[in-house]
Design a protein that fits this description.
By secondary structure, the protein is an alpha/beta fold. Helix content is about 35%, strand content about 15%.
Length: about 425
């Protein structure tokens, strides 16, 4: 059954918006430690600090804890990548941004946080946002206040210093046929992207918090990927993003297979995984599990909260082992900072992180790190990996499957030819 058919049967990739800063989108194994993750208490580089614009952002040198990608050696088994990502990331009273930073540190993981630009814009300055096909100051997820912006800036700063990625979930989160992102042109997407950047680059001016510490990155360079609201509008967004120098998109739905490029971007779509108790598969996102459990009712039957959370956790873990013991395709997971059905999905995500991120050969990384690794690989090796179906390990073994003479590595990647003087 194709991915599209499976979605029609069991997955609702539809519009729903949560309140506050949640946003919306639509055999035994050993447990040796995996690759090293971010160190606790990461600090900004002290040797470089160049303020940008009004000082809301700054260049502070290369990002700490960003590993140098290495090309697979002939016959080498690929690592198992897992990406945990968050739509509309912001720090509100639930303190889930700071909580999952802690979870990451404790489990040798880094993640991607898709920041919503309007969470950096105060309510009283809402008229600065001019969304395509909507009146100025419109937003389906509201705006923020000074405290919320200060808290979100703090978490984004610390997250980046720990090796995590700050992407974008754009701004007003408009879905559906009436002016939703699925109806936007390429130029309208460019306007939305420019505004999402601008709100991050001018939060000091817009809040008056001139003495606060800046975000320690140049957002024009940091921003290389996104996920669209409700997974709509991907086609025109990807055209705009490609022209603007983005490197990946995570707005689609796919099987658990190795990714390829579309419109010059890595298509790092979320995937379909087993849905315990059902005959169809489920998208790797908390919202979609919820819709297939309690409908659009965000607080359903409390007696089922634990069961629903276990369903999501077990589905994600089954999908992980299907890849880990099979084709080693990266597992892409998307979520929101939310309290749906008593917060059971947040528990499910945390349980999954603890279950998978410390396994041998497992790398829980950001999209940025995954894109770096993919770019470093021999295209012929990636093409061969894409011949493996969902859960399919090479019959002849990895050493034989990926043996052969590799193409020269790109400049800057270990194994690249020496530069002639």
């Amino acid at each position: 059954m194709t991915a599209t058919q499976r979605i029609a049967v069991g997955v609702v990739v539809a519009a729903a918006c949560a309140s506050s800063l949640a946003g919306c989108a639509t055999g035994p194994h050993s447990s040796k430690k995996g690759v090293s993750g971010p160190r606790k208490g990461a600090r900004a580089p002290q040797s470089v600090l160049r303020l940008i614009g009004d000082g809301s952002t700054a260049y502070t040198g290369s990002q700490p804890h960003l590993p140098r990608p290495e090309r697979l050696k002939p016959g080498q088994k690929p690592p198992q990548f897992v990406v945990f990502s968050w739509d509309g990331a912001g720090e509100d009273s639930q303190k889930l941004f700071s909580h999952f930073r802690k979870v990451s540190r404790e489990n040798r993981a880094t993640m991607t946080y898709f920041l919503s630009g309007v969470y950096m814009l105060p309510e009283e300055k809402r008229e600065q946002y001019k969304p395509p096909q909507h009146s100025p100051g419109s937003s389906d997820i509201g705006f923020n206040d000074e405290k919320g912006i200060a808290n979100t800036v703090k978490q984004a700063r610390l997250a980046w210093l720990e090796g995590n990625e700050i992407g974008t979930h754009f701004n007003g989160h408009f879905c559906g046929p009436d002016g939703g992102v699925g109806t936007w042109s390429v130029d309208e997407w460019k306007s939305e992207i420019a505004q999402a950047k601008q709100f991050v680059k001018s939060w000091k001016t817009n809040t008056g918090m001139k003495k606060s510490a800046p975000l320690p990155f140049d957002y024009d360079k940091e921003l290389i990927g996104a996920r669209t609201p409700c997974l709509e509008g991907q086609q025109n967004f990807m055209k705009a993003a490609s022209q603007l120098g983005f490197r990946y998109d995570s707005s689609g739905v796919n099987e658990q297979v190795w990714p390829k490029k579309k419109e010059g971007l890595w298509d790092l779509s979320m995937q379909l995984v087993p849905f315990p108790g059902h005959t169809f598969e489920q998208l790797t996102m908390d919202y979609n599990f919820m819709v297939n459990q309690s409908g659009t009712e965000t607080q359903g039957d409390p007696d089922k909260f634990d069961y629903w959370g276990d369903q999501m956790r077990d589905g994600l873990v089954k999908g992980f082992y299907r890849a880990y013991d099979g084709n080693r395709a990266p597992l892409i997971i998307g979520n929101h900072f939310e309290s749906w059905n008593g917060g059971t999905y947040m528990r499910a995500v945390e349980d999954t992180v603890k279950e998978v991120c410390n396994k041998p050969d497992v790398r829980c990384v950001s999209f940025h790190q995954l894109a770096d690794w993919l770019d470093a690989q021999d295209p012929k090796v990636l093409e061969k990996l894409r011949t493996l179906q969902v859960g399919e390990a090479p019959r002849q073994g990895w050493a034989s499957f990926l043996s052969g003479s590799p193409a020269p590595a790109p400049k800057g990647v270990p194994g690249a030819p020496a530069v002639e003087q």
